[in-house]
Specification:
Layout: E1 2-3, H1 14-26, H2 30-33, H3 44-63, H4 75-93, H5 98-118, H6 138-160, H7 168-178, H8 182-185, E2 196-202, E3 207-214, E4 217-223, E5 230-235, H9 236-243, H10 249-255, E6 257-260, H11 262-268
Parallel strand pairs: 2-5
Antiparallel strand pairs: 1-4, 2-3, 3-4, 5-6
Length: 276
């Protein structure tokens, strides 16, 4: 059965994962701050600095209307800009001590959580790059911000061997947001009308989603038709890591089950639900 996917409403979760982050960082030893993470070339401290940059960017740019940076053209320009911006921030902010970093995250994170909760989730906002170039509802933009905070906190937890934050309350919205990138993943794939591709993610936070070729475009639905033309079945842990480039496509393929048209199924694993 196919249904329109429901909005991913996450504003109430920001304070919770923020408190989890602060508690995690306060527990780290000097050695753990320097551990490498899945973010190539970045230590635990670098990832935490990046998260601080996210908070400052949202407060300065979105809440306060402070404009900084160059105008951006297409997708490649956006990726290059964000990669450069992120790296320059982490490099400059490296002088901040872990203690001060935590203090600044407490301050900025609290204000960001408050700001996000004041927004109308059903108002229209800017585009979410990895979903598409069209304006998106605010709830989708907030879901993107939530996935950013969740998966980078998970990078830190992985690096220092701390318990995961994978309860369905926290991980399910991440996966629900990530699958919004499926239509964009198939945008250049030509198929007959009503061709269907289903992604099944197993585990407590998983579910089933499908894209259908309709009127020369691909549209996302929750659920699956009785007999999809292609289906990919992957575990929730493989899913979030693959969609954030934290796992190679080859390794993801080895752990996936494919049914039906394998060419269409393999295309699912091209999905990337981050920009940089």
């Amino acid at each position: 059965m196919l249904e329109e996917p429901k909005p991913v409403i996450v504003a109430a979760l920001f304070p919770e994962i923020h408190e989890e982050l602060i508690a995690l960082l306060r527990s780290l030893t000097a050695d753990e701050w320097q551990r490498p993470t899945a973010c190539s070339g970045w230590s635990v401290k670098d990832v935490a600095l990046h998260l601080l940059g996210d908070e400052i960017g949202n407060l300065s740019g979105r809440r306060d209307g402070h404009v900084a940076g160059a105008s951006i053209g297409g997708w490649n320009d956006l990726v290059a800009f964000i990669n450069g911006w992120n790296q320059s921030w982490v490099s400059v902010a490296g002088r901040i001590s872990p203690r001060l970093l935590i203090d600044l995250l407490v301050l900025a994170g609290h204000q960001t959580c408050q700001y996000f909760q004041e927004l109308d989730p059903f108002a229209m906002g800017g585009a979410v790059g990895w979903v598409g170039p069209e304006p998106a509802p605010v709830w989708l933009d907030l879901a993107r911000e939530y996935t950013e905070r969740w998966h980078h906190q998970q990078h830190i937890r992985d690096a220092v061997g701390k318990p995961d934050l994978k309860q369905p309350r926290y991980l399910a919205p991440v996966i629900e947001a990530f699958v919004r990138a499926l239509p964009r993943t198939f945008r250049e794939t030509t198929a007959e009308e009503s061709t269907s591709v289903t992604l099944t993610i197993t585990g407590p936070s998983g579910g089933r989603w499908s894209v259908l070729s309709e009127d020369t475009a691909w549209h996302l639905y929750s659920g699956a038709p009785d007999r999809p033309d292609a289906e990919v079945i992957i575990d929730e842990d493989v899913a979030w890591r693959s969609f954030t480039r934290g796992m190679s496509q080859n390794l993801a393929r080895e752990q996936a089950v494919f049914e039906g048209d394998q060419t269409l199924g393999l295309k699912v694993l091209d999905m990337v639900s981050i920009i940089a």
